[in-house]
Amino acid sequence: MSCKGLYRPLAIPLGAIAVTLGLFGCHPSGPQVAGRPECPTDVIVLPSDTGYVTTTELAAPGPISLVPEYHDCQRFVNPEKTTYGPLVAIFATYKLDTVPDPVVPQQPTRALLGGTERAAATILNYNDPYEPLSIEHGINCLYMVTSNGIWRAHIVKVWSDSACVRPMSENAGGADLNVTVLAGPRGDSVPPVARWDWDPIVRKHYIGIRCGSQWCEVYDLSQPTLNSSPHYAGSIQAAVKGWYDEQYLAVRSVGGNGLAPGGVLATIIPVANLADFTVANFDATWQKVAVVSLSDDSPKYHDKFNFVRAAPPAGKSEVWLCKGDPAACGISNAQVPASCPNKDDPWWGKIVADGTTRYRCVIRRTHPGISIPGAVRWRWQVDDEDMWIRCPEGCCEMT
Fold first, then answer.
1. pLDDT-derived band at 311, boundaries 50, 70, 90
2. Domain segments of the chain: what residues?
3. Which of 33, 73, 112, 268 is an S-S bond match for 39, by CB 3.0 to 4.6 Å?
4. What whole-number distance in Å separates Cα of residue 374 and Cα of residue 347?
5. Is the pLDDT at 209 greater than 90, yes or no?
6. Would you say the pTM of this structure is higher than 0.90?
7. Would the CA dihedral through 243, 246, 251, 253 be positive or negative?
8. Residue among 135, 252, 229, 233 nearest 184 (CA)
9. Residue 111: pLDDT band with limits 50, 70, 90
10. pLDDT score at 56
11. d(Cα 57, Cα 66) in Å, to the nearest integer?
């Protein structure tokens, strides 16, 4: 049975409210994250002006709603990268790779998925509006529109995520956004995903998303041009955005009350054949799945993940996965990560850098019947950040 539309009110104990408000700086209408382990994963919390409800499926993403490799969730930073702003999630619409490229001369159309006009992404904002992208508190639909063969974007606040599977109303309001289409690889080389990105010159967040067979970057209408974040030579996974992820990793704020943006830019890039691995490839066998680069030293993330300073795309911190009990994966009792809730599906991670190895707990969430792109991304949490990595028949979180 589909979970679409089967929402339930979010119940949060009073004790959790104080914690949530302190950690997230929530919108005044109430807390939204106490029962929410991630956006997206086990549940999705839908914010509104009247409260919060949970679901396991959004209308436009449909069966990929809980597959984090397709989507992104971050706390936006202020221009100086000193404090966090709103917590915002973007969910790519299902089958973005079936949207055709615009044809000239073509009548204005919106993103076509199976012949139906709908939004290209659903955006959930749990806090105050983010003005550069006209993202309002609550639920927003991002429409990718073609006009005379050129991609345009329009964002509009809605009252139900189901609005994002309907054509945009001409009197819906909202705001136009600028679009830049990146040159380079097309088609299967571009993942059908959505990502948050960062303009390093004007210091604003922007959106990256597949459009037709290419990658589009959607940004503030007041900007004459976008200063696109770097992408890298080498493999398709390093050169094409959406496969890899890059952001400033969170650290504990001064005094230890919550998180603050750190000064270290972290880049995680998957190996080229990540989508080809099967479960059998990992049985009692370590497979390299990604490399991580840091723009500077980070004692916090070196202690946790063995990440070291290096220039992307090569990196110096190699991420590996193995399935099996610790002994089968060659992990001694002294090296086994403590309190790892993976007994029923034991997966482990290791990060190798500068001749040292650190082992980590891995939780695999399976998504039967879903084709998962060979992508990786950072996972924002309440205490720090970790990784989402595509693994066979599911998504692996390295904690």
1. very high
2. 1-229, 238-399
3. 73
4. 18
5. yes
6. no
7. negative
8. 233
9. low
10. 84
11. 7
Q: Distance between CA atoms of 121 and 341, rounded to whole angstroms?
A: 33
* Tokens read off for 365: 């969430």
State the pLDDT at residue 256: 61
Give the tens place of pLDDT for each residue, 168-184.
877 778 999 999 999 98
Kindly tell me if the per-residue pLDDT of 105 is higher than 60. Answer: yes
> In the numeric block, which tokens belong to residue 286?
């370590």
State how far the alpha carbon of 151 is from the alpha carbons of 36, 127, 202, 385, in Å. Answer: 35, 29, 22, 34
Over residues 150-162, the pLDDT tens digits come to 899 999 999 999 9
